[in-house]
Design goal:
250 residues; alpha/beta; single chain; six-stranded mixed sheet; four-stranded antiparallel sheet; 24% strand; 10 strands
Length: 250
């Protein structure tokens, strides 16, 4: 269950993002509480992924403020690298190093960023692979893994950095349908363990079962947000209703 008694680990205020003359985000206000799973849904091109990428400054906001555990990551004097260590990020396309084994993919950032010893990084990597059910793949190369296994390795890699929160950018959209479940199961376990999570997703079943809150974004604005039950089954806004009608499988 979310803990909203503290400063939200993620707080977005009046966020705008332009790409040239194209305004993708148009004044977004958004937050995620401690131990909360917020699922962000909406049509392609609505600004969901841009919002997520702005939160850890992979994209530079045009205007507005973003606070990570109370610290303004948009402040010119902010230590962005230090704040990023609190945020685990999982992408659509895994982004594993193809020339490194699974173990090396999981240890390289631990040693370079967190300055852990080789032995400590190894032990953490094995522990995190165990969490995602892939200890037997420790010496495999990414090309030898299925898409679902690669994404589970990517999640384990993020967990190796001991993040306070996790951001998922449509983590199952590049997977064959039969592989989606194994990734969602790992995410479900993380939610049960109390990980603070923001999940951009098209998986309405996951949003309904695991999310504490669902936010519908369209045209660069938050159109509606509510509990999964209320938003997915009883949407209040016409734009939300039309989107959900088009996504028949939820």
């Amino acid at each position: 269950m979310p803990d909203d008694t503290k400063t939200p680990p993620i707080q977005v205020i009046g966020l705008h993002k332009h790409f040239g003359t194209l305004e993708v985000l148009k004044g977004i206000d958004f937050h995620v509480n401690h131990r909360e799973v917020v699922c962000v849904i909406g049509p392609s091109g609505s600004g969901k992924s841009t919002l997520l990428r702005c939160i850890n400054r992979l994209e530079e906001p045009t205007a507005g403020k973003i606070f990570i555990e109370g610290e303004d990551i948009t402040d010119p004097d902010a230590d962005v690298d230090a704040l990023r260590t609190k945020i685990g990020m999982v992408f659509q396309r895994f982004n594993l190093f193809p020339h490194l084994t699974v173990l090396s993919n999981l240890t390289i950032a631990q040693q370079k960023v967190l300055k852990r010893s080789a032995d400590e990084a190894h032990d953490v990597a094995v522990k995190m692979l165990q969490r995602v059910g892939l200890t037997e793949k420790v010496d495999a190369y990414p090309i030898r893994l299925s898409g679902g296994q690669q994404q589970r390795v990517a999640i384990a890699r993020s967990l190796c950095m001991n993040p306070d929160m996790m951001l998922f950018d449509e983590p199952t959209s590049a997977l064959d349908p039969e592989l989606v479940g194994e990734v969602l199961d790992v995410m479900r376990k993380l939610a049960e363990e109390g990980m603070t999570m923001m999940v951009v997703t098209h998986e309405m079943g996951f949003a309904r079962q695991v999310g504490d809150r669902v936010t519908f974004i369209d045209g660069g604005v938050v159109v509606e947000e509510n509990t999964p039950e209320d938003l997915l089954l009883h949407p209040q806004h016409e734009r939300t209703r039309k989107f959900l009608e088009a996504v028949q499988h939820y």
